[in-house]
Design goal:
Number of helices: 10
Number of domains: 2
CATH topology of the largest domain: D-Maltodextrin-Binding Protein, domain 2
CATH architecture of the largest domain: 3-Layer(aba) Sandwich
Shape: globular
Strand content: 15-25%
Amino acid sequence: MHKKVQIIAVILGIAACGPSWATWPEDKPIEVVVGFAAGGGTDVMARKLLPFVEKRVGGKAKFVVLNKPGAGGEIAFASIARAAPDAYAMGVVNVPGYNFLPMTRKTQYSMDDIRLVARVVDDPSVMVVRAESKLANLSDVLAALRSKTGSVTFGHNGAGTNGHLALRMLAGAAKVEPNEISYRGTSAQRTDILGGHLEVGMVSLSEVPELHGTNKGELRAIAILSKTRSPSLPDVPTAAEAGVPITMTAERGFAVPKGVPDDVVKKLEAAIADSVRDPEYIKSSPGDVPVLAFMPGAEWQKRLDDMSQGLRPLADEMRVNEQK
């Protein structure tokens, strides 16, 4: 009799837990952690897209973006991994840093503790300079570095980010050594470029909307690290055109702690998929339009697994160099 009571209690407990997820989200904020400073591509993407996601998940959803910059996004990734699996804490993950950092050192997070929900953008890296810079193209940069090692300063957003890895690939392919400076976000790079304190910024295509169309600003792109020229920057040559066949992209999307229930993840994934197609979102975020590339979480995870195999040699090389 005692065992029957226990079984009934377990069944009732499961039944009580199940319907509670159907009411998600309730009247409480959903914190979304961003691993870079305000004003960068990751921050802007999240802040512009999430209001559209709010409408689609229903209930009383209210997303609140929290910036936790530092360590190439590791602080934010760790925050996602350690959060309670109640779907009221999630974050943006940035690839390749997210899957690359654990290859090079013991990180504060494990990808096994995080579940990808959806990719939103696939954003190629771009080299930018101040409009009046004497560096007209990538060939000029390489010539300067070959004449004097470290003579050109390059900014990136931290170890393991797309800008950092692109620089390491550039150094290896062109046999040069740039003077690297790590920043906490693209907005800081931009400030230093415009102030004349940084010569070349390694940013993502969507992060500098003034580069697109006819609205030319104080920054100028000199190379894009994609296989072909971008339709939004048709006059900007690829790195391969300068004799350096390297490509690098930044993928950004949303993730939750591993234990979040399947139905909530599916609800979020569907809301994000619908939001990136919303004409009002597209109109409000012209910088993201050329790089929008929605991908479901499970498919994105498989892509990252495949990508990691290609990045492993670079990770091994970086570990060896750090030990010297």
